[in-house]
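Below is a filled-in request sheet from our internal design queue. Each sheet records the structural input a requester submitted and the sequence that came back. We keep these sheets so that new team members can see what a complete request looks like end to end.

REQUESTER: design group, bay 2
PRIORITY: normal
MODE: inverse folding
CHAIN LENGTH: 156
BACKBONE (tokenized):
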């Protein structure tokens, strides 16, 4: 960890860097899952889902950058390689599915799990006294809940 004038204690910064790297792995995996769905979805609602999945991918790509930059801001080093996604707590995305309902269910499961991890990160950051990291995950959690709503609306 490099030195910084940020007024958080070193142990808080170290804990938050570890937390951010863990959630970065999940975010990388989720980003790849949304693009997998975008490329492979088939069915009567193809264009609507194709575009929705791409919009989700764009938002999640922004979270990749925000999470990584927060970890570096705190003095850390991030692992943003494709291999880092292997450390994700999310279930691997099934690569062979094409049916729109299967993609909707697979993404809904992963976005729900990711939202839960984001809320846990909010609590961890709050407990550590890092309100900025908590705020980052609050924004992510709020958007993931909305994205989950969009997915679930297609399944009802």
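RETURNED SEQUENCE:
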């Amino acid at each position: 960890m490099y030195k910084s004038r940020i007024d958080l204690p070193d142990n808080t910064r170290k804990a938050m860097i570890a937390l951010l790297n863990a959630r970065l792995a999940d975010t990388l995996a989720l980003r790849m899952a949304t693009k997998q769905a975008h490329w492979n979805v088939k069915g009567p609602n193809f264009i609507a889902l194709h575009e929705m999945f791409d919009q989700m991918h764009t938002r999640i790509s922004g979270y990749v950058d925000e999470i990584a930059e927060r970890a570096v801001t705190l003095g850390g080093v991030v692992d943003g390689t494709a291999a880092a996604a292997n450390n994700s707590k999310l279930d691997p995305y099934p690569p062979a599915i094409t049916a729109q309902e299967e993609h909707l269910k697979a993404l809904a499961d992963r976005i729900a799990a990711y939202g839960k991890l984001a809320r846990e990160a909010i609590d961890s950051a709050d407990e550590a006294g890092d309100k900025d990291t908590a705020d980052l995950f609050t924004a992510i959690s709020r958007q993931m809940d909305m994205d989950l709503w969009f997915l679930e609306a297609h399944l009802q």
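SHEET NOTES:
- The domain at 22-78+91-155 is CATH 1.20.1260.10 (Ferritin).
- The chain has a mean pLDDT of 97.
FILED BY: M.R.
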